[in-house]
Write a structure and sequence with these properties.
Number of helices: 18
Helix content: 25-40%
Radius of gyration: 22 Å
Distance between the termini: 27 Å
Strand content: 5-15%
Order of helices and strands: HHHHEHHEHEHEHHHEEHEHEHHHHH
Largest sheet: 4 strands, parallel
Strand order of the largest sheet: 3-2-1-4
Number of strands: 8
CATH superfamily of the largest domain: NADH-ubiquinone oxidoreductase 51kDa subunit
Number of domains: 3
Low-confidence stretches: none
Shape: globular
Structural class: alpha/beta
Mean pLDDT: 94
CATH architecture of the largest domain: 3-Layer(aba) Sandwich
């Protein structure tokens, strides 16, 4: 169901829309942070966050309010370890480009969300971790922090409340692995960007060995809107409120579409609605080969795939027998059809694109970005790339093609973090859904000269 909203994007495109004056005028800026700190307890803030049913917007889809509730309760005793909030704005997933629009066009929502979250989890400091390449994003965030501090919304006594809150922007060095929460924590501490073994989980031992909550930037930016509307009412905006996937979120559409964009919608649009009603259809009015639902690490889906949910108790039963492109996009609905919602930035791949080259292109990225700590990921990603290149060059055997499945399955579940699965899952999906195209290269019926990643014409 396509329902346009503007709780996060009302300041987009407005003159000086990223400034404090526009945020206060258009979105009632900092009223919810004031209300939280001056009229609510920590427990009430966390309870309200749970009612909003905000599923993590960074990829995993874990409920934000529940994650907040994992933090130690009560005020830290004198001498006890402090609590921290870490906000993931690394956004290194290929095809993902939503968080930077918030930082550039509505940075105060990010800062206000940090204030509310810090109070709810018992933290006094928030770090927003931003890719170093996003210079405008960093500048806008830092400007918003300065404006908020000047107005008394940050500092030793925000809104007159004896509860200090500070927000800092921390630059990453452009490593994709630092989008993984524990790698990010290592990076913030000045260590090598490698994932940590869990347990202990960040809520017990995160930044600097202290209790820490890690949330995606969009997740945090949605908090003021949820509190302003009322958490339950905010959740009910979603077509998937009944399965605890609430509110609004940013959807990106890119790839072979006429109008690539980022748009705010109530949770629950379909692929078809995003591609045709929001992005204006496919370039050259071509058909759709497949889509990558939310960042390159999510398994591709094809229009001809249908939903198999004959059980009336299944959440997907209303779409039984229908195309997966007609299923509302949600965390659990996408898992139900065999993929993941991920970052919710859909990459559209048109007919005429070569899926074998697509896989080689993705494997090149994952091989380059593997931190190398886990042998299955380090060696497996390199192996997937080498065999993919051999197939494109017409030098691979059917045995090597079959071996790609074993290589990818050997990565699954055998690494410290989810990077390995993020490499293997798209590879397995492409191999499964485009087997004839791979065999055509092996049998010499197709060559690299025939391969295309772009669509002509571009209008």
């Amino acid at each position: 169901m396509l329902k346009r909203t503007n709780y996060l994007t009302r300041t987009y495109g407005k003159p000086e829309g990223w400034g404090l004056a526009a945020y206060e005028r258009e979105l009632g800026g900092y009223q919810q942070a004031r209300r939280a700190l001056t009229t609510m307890t920590r427990e009430q803030v966390v309870d309200e966050a749970k009612k909003a049913n905000i599923r993590g917007r960074g990829g995993a889809g874990f409920p934000m309010g529940i994650k907040w509730s994992f933090m130690p309760k009560g005020s830290p005793a004198p001498g006890a370890k402090p609590h921290y909030l870490v906000v993931n704005a690394d956004e290194g997933e290929p095809g993902t480009h939503k968080d930077r629009t918030l930082m550039e066009q509505n940075p105060h929502a990010c800062v206000e969300g940090c204030i509310i979250a810090c109070y709810g989890i018992g933290a006094h400091v928030a770090y927003i971790y931003v890719r170093d390449e996003l210079h405008l994003s960093k500048a806008r965030l830092e400007g918003a922090i300065l404006e908020a501090r000047a107005k008394g919304y940050l500092g030793k006594a925000p809104f007159g409340k004896d509860y200090a809150v500070e927000v800092y922007v921390h630059s990453g060095a452009g490593a994709y692995i630092c989008g993984e929460e524990t790698s990010m924590l290592n990076s913030i501490e000045g260590r090598r960007g490698e994932p940590r073994m869990k347990p202990p989980f960040p809520a017990n031992a995160g930044a600097f060995g202290c209790p820490t909550t890690v949330n995606n930037l969009e997740t945090i930016a949605a908090v003021p809107a949820a509190f302003g509307l009322g958490a339950d009412e905010f959740s009910k905006l979603s077509a998937l409120h009944h399965i605890n996937d609430g509110g609004v979120r940013l959807y990106g559409v890119n790839g072979h579409v006429k109008k690539p964009c980022v748009v705010e919608l109530a949770v629950g649009p379909t692929f078809n609605e995003l591609i045709h009603d929001v992005a204006g259809g496919v370039l050259g009015d071509k058909g759709i080969l497949c889509v990558i639902p939310g960042g390159s690490s999510t398994p591709v889906m094809r229009p001809a795939e249908t939903v198999h949910a004959p059980d009336p108790k299944s959440p997907l039963h209303p779409w039984h027998g229908k195309s997966v492109f007609d299923v509302p996009l949600g965390v659990d609905t996408m898992r139900g059809v065999g993929t993941m919602l991920g970052t919710c930035c859909v990459t559209v791949i048109a007919d005429g694109t070569d899926p074998v080259w697509c896989m080689q292109n993705l494997m090149q990225f994952y091989r380059h970005e593997s931190c190398g700590q886990c042998t299955p990921c380090r060696e497996g990603s390199a192996w997937l790339l080498r065999v993919s290149e051999k197939i494109l060059d017409g030098k691979a055997s059917l045995q090597e093609l079959d071996g790609l499945h074993d290589i990818a399955n050997g990565i699954m579940g055998n690494t410290i973090c989810a990077f390995g699965e993020g490499t293997a899952m798209p590879a397995l999906a492409i191999l499964q859904k485009f087997r004839p195209e791979f065999e055509a290269y092996v049998r010499g019926q197709r060559s690299r000269a025939d391969a295309r990643l772009t669509v002509e014409p571009w209008s």
